[in-house]
Amino acid sequence: MENSEKKFADSENCPVRNVLDRFGDKWSTLVLLVLDDTKVLRFNEIHKMIDTISQKMLAVTLKSLEADGLVLRTQYPEIPPRVEYTLSERGASLIPHIKSLVQWANANFEAITQSRAAYKK
């Protein structure tokens, strides 16, 4: 029991908590799926595809994904500057796992919604 307590207590050094916290937010998974679907996108193209995200939140999300090496940002020396985003090899390796989670969510969404409604009563 003592080893289990120590195993889950240190969130900074726990791979599961540390990594999932970074891409398990409201927007990161969606950005990764959009980039997987389209391969290369500019900031405004991503924003148009996910029209419910603010520009500020999209910028924060892309920086976080880039910092973790999941997304690559390429800036071209043009006027005006052109910046494109694509999945890195690491980001691409995550996609099959995200797609499995999406399938699970789709298969269980109705039952989970019903459970939530029943729980509130």
Report on the architecture of this protein.
It is a single chain. The chain has 121 residues and is of the alpha+beta class. It has a single domain (2-120), classed as Arc Repressor Mutant, subunit A. Helix content is 66%, strand content 12%. A hairpin with a 5-residue loop joins strand 2 and strand 3. The longest helix has 32 residues, at 89-120. The protein starts with a helix and ends with a helix. It holds the Pfam family HxlR.
User: Topology as H/E string?
Assistant: HHHEHHEEH
Largest sheet: 3 strands, antiparallel
CATH H-level homologous superfamily name: Winged helix-like DNA-binding domain superfamily/Winged helix DNA-binding domain
- Which structural class matches the secondary elements? alpha+beta
* Corresponding CATH architecture: Orthogonal Bundle
Q: What does the average pLDDT come to?
A: 90
- Helix % is 55-70%
Strand order of the largest sheet: 1-3-2
Query: Which class in CATH terms?
Result: Mainly Alpha
Number of domains: 1
Give the end-to-end Cα distance, rounded to a whole number of Å. Answer: 36 Å
In DSSP terms (H or I, runs of 4 or more residues), the helix count works out at 6
Unreliable spans are none
3D shape? globular
Radius of gyration of CA atoms, rounded to a whole number: 18 Å
Strand content: 5-15%
Provide the CATH topology: Arc Repressor Mutant, subunit A
Instruction: Let me know the number of strands.
Output: 3
